[in-house]
Design brief:
Blueprint lengths: L7 H17 L11 E2 L5 E8 L3 H12 L5 E5 L36 H16 L5 H14 L4 E3 L2 E8 L2 E7 L5 E9 L7 E3 L13 E3 L13 E5 L3 H12 L4 E6 L16 H7 L4 H14 L5 H8 L4 E5 L3 E7 L2 E6 L2 E5 L1 E4 L3 E3 L17 H4 L9 H4 L24 E2 L6 H4 L9 H19 L1 H10 L26
Parallel strand pairs: 2-3, 2-7, 3-4, 7-18, 9-16, 10-11, 10-16, 11-12
Antiparallel strand pairs: 1-2, 5-6, 6-7, 8-17, 13-14, 14-15
Length: about 500
């Protein structure tokens, strides 16, 4: 974190440069998609993006850059609180290197580095280790403002259903009960195709005694309390640190594994080749790569782990997988593989599950979404139930229907969130590949819309009569007379 005061002048100069670059690139491009209305005259949007966080913002920028302008971006959270950064994310800094371009979409002046350096200077940039989490949210708010991306906050999509050739979206918090659109982009983040993973052992426990790491947690209320944290991933560690820093009497990590994961395997193979090549691999290879990543587990960052271990009242219990939990005489008892633990509060650092029917927008039709388990059987020894729940999507991020006739409309819903990871890699949520994923998404949607409207575009081609030449640029020449040509011998 820098102690220097931000320079408003430097930021203004950067914003002027961005406007100039956008003008040079003719961005955002002019709209080319013909307007459509429903039979009753209701407006039809070309694309509705659900989610105004990082994925939703860069998706909107990519679509507008491609001349798809009739779109809306809806987010259920208040302005400035889109995504996890100021809600359930509790790490001090981002894991990703500060130099990654993130959602800049090929423009250097839109990177975090440009934004930071314009305000704090080169020396501060050189001194910066990792990006502070709240500062990343500040950057995303600026990104939204400088690109004039019209996110509508406080609006929740509660249902997606087909209506003729369009999709009907039921809304909560808007001035209208529903809207029509041709395409939906679910830029709904880490839990975008499911929800928090809640283990069965908390069933029956009073809700006041446990929380998932994605919940709002009153950490101040844990002062002087004994806290048990299930798991050792990044979210588990970050929540343990928050509890310790708010004065918890003790925090004990209950870890199923016998030892701490220490190597981030996927970090070692990240490259342009992997980003482009992964989605074109066979199902066997994609499954093998992603399963290996899941089984080896991504460790929590070094700084986050030290944030916990520096406290003398922090404990790491390996081989202590939780079997059950109960309340006896007002005491919370957790049964683990190592024995019974008495504690006052339980935090589940158990991540998120992929389960399309857990999403209210899709619950009504989720049984028609093609999943990996429906079309791929892994070799013996490589089974993985969680991976089998991932949607089997194409490079357009669109859901595929189990019944192509009955549920063909699912191809109009694009899973631009964590749910696309097994099919396409880390291009729809993680900072390193988010711009590439947005490019694929925009290209696919543009191609689909153009193809659907091909009759209109053909008619426009035939009707186009704007002359390039006005008739005064040439004159007709007389044909030459036949003349005898003498040849010397």
């Amino acid at each position: 974190m820098t102690d220097a005061s931000p320079s408003a002048q430097g930021l203004e100069q950067l914003e002027a440069r961005i406007k100039f670059e956008l003008n040079c690139l003719n961005l955002p491009a002019a709209n080319w998609v013909p307007e459509q209305v429903a039979p009753d005259g209701e407006q039809v949007h070309d694309v509705v993006i659900i989610g105004g966080g990082m994925c939703g913002l860069v998706a909107a920028f990519a679509l507008r850059s491609g001349g798809i302008r009739n779109l809306r971006i809806l987010d259920r959270n208040p302005a400035g609180h889109e995504g996890p950064w100021l809600t359930y994310a509790r790490m001090e800094t981002l894991r990703s290197p500060k130099t990654l371009p993130g959602p800049a979409f090929g423009m250097g002046s839109l990177t975090f580095r440009a934004w930071f350096q314009a305000q704090f200077g080169f020396s501060a940039w050189e001194d910066l280790d990792k990006i502070p989490r709240p500062m990343w949210m500040d950057y995303l708010k600026w990104y939204r403002e400088v690109l004039d991306i019209p996110v509508e906050n406080g609006i929740e999509v509660t249902r997606i259903a087909p209506e003729g050739r369009y999709l009907r979206l039921a809304l909560r918090g808007a001035g209208q009960p529903s809207i029509l659109t041709r395409r939906v982009v679910m830029a709904t983040g880490r839990d975008g195709t499911g929800g928090p993973n809640i283990p069965a052992f908390v069933e029956g426990l009073p809700r006041s005694l446990w929380a998932h790491s994605a919940d709002h947690i009153d950490f101040a209320a844990l002062k002087g309390k004994r806290v048990a944290v299930v798991g050792i991933g990044a979210s588990a560690v970050d929540n343990a640190a928050e509890a310790l820093e708010h004065g918890a009497a003790e925090v004990r990590h209950l870890i199923r594994r016998s030892q701490m994961p220490v190597v981030n395997k996927m970090m070692g193979i990240g490259s342009y080749g992997f980003t482009q090549g992964y989605c074109q691999m066979s199902d066997d290879w994609r499954w093998q790569f992603m399963r290996y990543s899941f089984v080896t587990q991504t460790p929590s960052p070094r700084g986050s782990t030290l944030r916990v271990s520096r406290h003398p009242n922090a404990f790491f219990h390996f081989g202590a997988g939780v079997k059950s939990a109960r309340v006896e005489q007002g005491q919370l008892l957790v049964e683990t593989a190592k024995g019974t633990l008495e504690t006052d509060f339980l935090i589940l650092g158990t991540g998120f599950r992929i389960e399309p029917d857990a999403r209210p927008e899709l619950a009504e039709h989720s049984d028609q979404i093609l999943l990996w388990r429906d079309c791929y059987t892994p070799p013996p020894g490589l089974e993985h139930a969680e991976l089998g729940n991932f949607p089997y999507v194409g490079r357009d991020f669109a859901f595929r229907p189990k019944d192509p006739v009955k549920s063909s409309w699912l191809r109009q819903v694009h899973c631009f969130n964590y749910g696309a990871t097994l099919s396409l890699g880390k291009v729809s949520g993680d900072i390193p590949g988010i711009s590439e994923g947005a490019r694929w998404l925009a290209e696919a949607i543009a191609a689909a819309l153009y193809t659907e409207d091909v009759d209109h575009h053909w008619s426009a081609l035939e009707a186009y009569d704007q002359p390039e030449l006005l008739g005064d640029e040439w004159r007709q020449s007389p044909w030459p007379e036949n003349r005898q040509v003498e040849v010397e011998v």
